[in-house]
Amino acid sequence: MNRTDQKIIEMMSKASDLNSGVETSYRYCLLTVPRSGSWLLSKMLGNTGLCGLPMEYLNVRYLRAYGAHAGVDGVRVNEYLSELEQRRTSENGVFGLKMHWSQFLNVYGTDQGIRDEGRQFLSQMDCLIRLYRQDKVAQAVSHYIAEQSDQWRVDHDDVEEDSFDMESIKFAPLAITESLLRLVREEQMWKRYLERRNIPYHSISYEQLAGEYEESSRTVLSWMGLDGQSIDIPEPATKKQANELNERLKQEYVDYIGAAAPQL
Does the global pTM surpass 0.70? Predict the structure, then answer.
């Protein structure tokens, strides 16, 4: 079993539950695409102690981990989410999750589009927050590296052995382009779906969150009806993963597609 699946199994175990014993009275969802800063935001929200434990509960790897803990092969999504609310709601009644468009499509999609249950699922949320990234090339490069290494986040308490061999990640312009197309398409699908159905939502970029972490965190908490100005904002729990590999691959890709400024 690789390190990522091991982490997911640990996160889905009862040892990670809040066990507040209160009924859920407020629900929110982070609407995301990969490499858009959702881990940074969800860890902040979870560490306040006021926002449940927002994780990718509809990610197939999380569903598989839940099934392993429960001793079942198939998971009924409505029952699964209902049980999670009992286990992952904070003492003030707040439950949250985060969800990529691909996960939403996997659960509620058909060949004809999104089933009405998908709209109902989003409509029962008291707050929807859409995350996006302005630098799409950097996002695509980050996604490509994460897919190659299967390392999707790095916590501050992760040990050095968890890092991957950066030399093993080679420049692959077509694979990066595929990531870029996927990420742009999924971001547009979120916007189109929400706006065509008049579903209200807030938006925040990765650049805002990373560049103005405390101020942006308070803004998000205020969107959720909490007193964002009086809450202690936890220090970032995840390490910034961008490094010289990301910068090198990004520059190589920009040069490859001819987007670099011409030399006069």
Answer: yes
